[in-house]
Amino acid sequence: MAGTTNGLAPDGLPKGFRSAELGWPELHRIPRPPYRLPLLGDVVGASRSTPMQDSLRYARRLGPIFRRRAFGNEFVFVWGAGLAADLADEERFAKHVGLGVANLRPVAGDGLFTAYNHEPNWQLAHDVLAPGFSREAMAGYHVMMLDVAARLTDHWDRAGAAGRTVDVPGDMTKLTLETIARTGFGHDFGSFERSRPHPFVTAMVGTLTYAQRLNTVPAPLAPWLLRGASRRNTADIDHLNRTVDDLVRARRAAGGRGGTGDLLDRMLETAHPETGERLSPENVRRQVITFLVAGHETTSGALSFALHYLAQHPGIAARARAEVDRVWGDTEAPGYEQVAKLRYVRRVLDESLRLWPTAPAFAREARTDTVLGGSYPMRRGAWALVLAGMLHRDPQVWGPDAEEFDPDRFDAKAVRSRAPHTFKPFGTGARACIGRQFALHEATLVLGLLLRRYELRPEPEYRLRVTERLTLMPEGLRLRLERRAGSGRAGTGPDRAAVAEDAASAPRCPVPRADD
């Protein structure tokens, strides 16, 4: 497990992992699995490779709050809608950096995703970078998103013409990596020109997988049990650092982009509007790694799950495709404002994120002594892991068919009728995903382009399997493509004059946080 208690942090809370006994005075009242082994804990029937899916199975048996013990450490899990809404209260609870997230700190340090609440660089970076996700900035990114999508469709056209199936997770990873690299950092990894994943992706997957494996072995034994994996992880981190250092060095040598404002430009040249502080070189590296990893890993998973469900539900795909044809018409490349008009396509994406939120859980800790849901006392610093994947399947919220794929759960009337804080694919509160609108725009645009260009055919024998590396991804998903008649106009590259005019006319406004 991720560390043990070792002194106090500047906020007065214990450092390192905090077992539930330290913060839940009435822990015995919380249900647990029936078969608990001495020393090992609740490991009967558990899988080291699919711990999140294991937790979903326990959740169905044990109810809206439960606990599990592994190697001497106790964990509390929450998924009931009322309890999750209580944990979303920003006055009483805050983000908790624990489990696999803390295991990423050797590479991401105090970046936006992995910073502890007491670390000042989180707020500094957030305030400096938030304008990079304004509506005006998003409209500027749209042109580059179209360019990268055209590289994907060229790749898929060749595969379809040759009668080959396409590797959906692999190609979505290439797409989203190139998109965040180009829009945020002016860099091209050349992913679609490679027969194998870019070494950056290989290193990234290695660090995520290692972070999860650390949670499956006793902390004192990790140096021995994971000796080889630890050496590979060190090499992976070195590769990520070198890649980012080269990227930053090239930007500095070029004298920046003259204040045009991509994310790297902001990191290097922008001071905090109130304090005048700037990000340190070390923190710039950590933020770039954070965005390159988080900015493409979760979006690629969301797109992959959505494409799986579209292929499995041809009636839903036809309805979504009809919307694309109606809204976009004969436009060679959709403008920025046209993407938000794909309301049903967006519902498909949201429903995919409901069933398989690619960031499947988030942790919350008590800011002060409190009582969760009026029933469970928590001391300051006590934390719980919110299982978004089970929160999104709560039958009291989503109905008896909560396991079924139905995009109409997200029509406007249905959304208004649901209680807040029941759909949380991007976390919650002040530290919810800063790139939420970026990911949603990119994914909706790409789904629209692919639906307009192809009929998606599943492999008949395929059954959804989900691989876990902190994030979730369909495993082994391949689709067969059929070009639609008259679809040559789609994905062939943007009409730059029209897109630029659309971007220039987009109003300025901040991006909302995913905190309902």
Provide an overview of this structure.
With about 525 residues, the protein is α+β, with helices and mostly antiparallel strands. The chain has a single domain, classed as Cytochrome p450 (Orthogonal Bundle). The chain is about 45% helix and about 10% strand. The protein contains 20 helices and twelve strands. It has helices at about 50-60, 80-85, 100-105, 105-110, 120-130, 135-160, 170-185, 200-215, 220-225, 225-255, 265-270, 280-310, 315-330, 335-340, 345-355, 390, 395-400, 410-415, 435-455, 495-505, and strands spanning about 65-70, 75-80, 95, 165, 360-365, 370, 375-380, 385, 455-460, 465-470, 470-475, 480-485. The strands form four sheets. Strands 1-2-8-5-3 form a five-stranded mixed β-sheet. It has a three-stranded antiparallel β-sheet with strand order 4-12-9. A two-stranded antiparallel ribbon has the order 6-7. Strand 1 and strand 2 form a beta hairpin. The radius of gyration is 23 Å and the shape is globular. The model is unreliable at about 1-5 and about 490-515 (pLDDT under 50).
